[in-house]
Structures are given as C-alpha cells and as structure tokens.
Fold this protein.
Amino acid sequence: MSTTTARDGFRASTVAGVAVRAVIAAALAAVVTFTPDHTARTGLVVLGVYLLVQAAVLGGGAAALARTRAGRGLVAARAAVSLVGGVVALTGVASGLDLLRPLEALVFGLVGALEIVGGLLGGERSELAGDAVVVGGLQVLVGVLLVVLNPDALFAVGVLSAWGAVVAVYLGISAANLRRRSARR
C-alpha cells in the first residue's frame, strides 16, 4: 500500500490543471474545426463557452497553477477577464463580427499578457512558468493578428481554432512531462 504526501497531491493537481486546460483548448479547436458554419455568430458562441469554461478552470485551480499570492491574484484576474469576456460574447451573439474581432483580440491580449507576467515574475509554479510565457505569448499573438490582419469572420474563427489546437498539443505534452517528472521523484 502506498501513501501519498501533500507534495504528491500538489503534483497531481498541477498535472490535472494543465491537462484540463489542454482538453478545453482541444475541445475549442475540435468544435470550430468540425462545425460547418464559420460565421461570426458561431465564433461568438464558441468563444463565449470556451471563456466561461476557462474562467471556471482558472478560478477553481488558482492554487494548483500559482505558487505565490501575487501569482494566484494573476490567475484570478485571468479568470475574471475570461468570465466577463464569455458573458459579453454570449450576450452579444447577434452583434456578429463587430463584436467578435475586438472582443477576441481584447480578451486574448489581456489574458495572454497576465499569463506572461505571471510566468516571468515567478507567480506561476516553477514547472509552469515556461508554459505560461509560451501560452500567454500565443494568446497575445492572436490578439495582435486580429487587430492587424484580415477583418473576415472566417479568419477570426479560424485563428481561434488554430490557437486552440496548438495550445492543446503544447499543454498536453507539458502535462505528460510533468506527470513523468513527478513519477520519477
């Protein structure tokens, strides 16, 4: 019979937090990819649901994702921005592209910047700091692309899907590596 320590529980919750983020990013990519309707309305619904789920995951997993009080505050801020963005997206579905592009750019830019700051300032768990900078950087990149490039709904929905796919693979690999490292200890 094996005994588990608090440290083992921490590692398991950290791995689970990263894995859950990978799964919701994969779900985002899959829904957009396999939905034949790539209109701004669909983009707002998918973005809204994704942001609400992300808000719940970040809000519930702040302790597993951050090691300092400031880090937990940054994770909570990401959850709050996601929550507000999700509500705005779902309540403004009829607004179409006039809401999708600026909302997606703003939310991804803010959440990405907060995640980068958490990773660089050491607020994130040390095992997750690099992931925070990469994933946050990809989110900021999506925000910038939406501001600078094509004003088309297909592009806005497509870049959301592409981001989800890349982040799902990246975080999936990270979760597997974290799990393997914690099993070695």
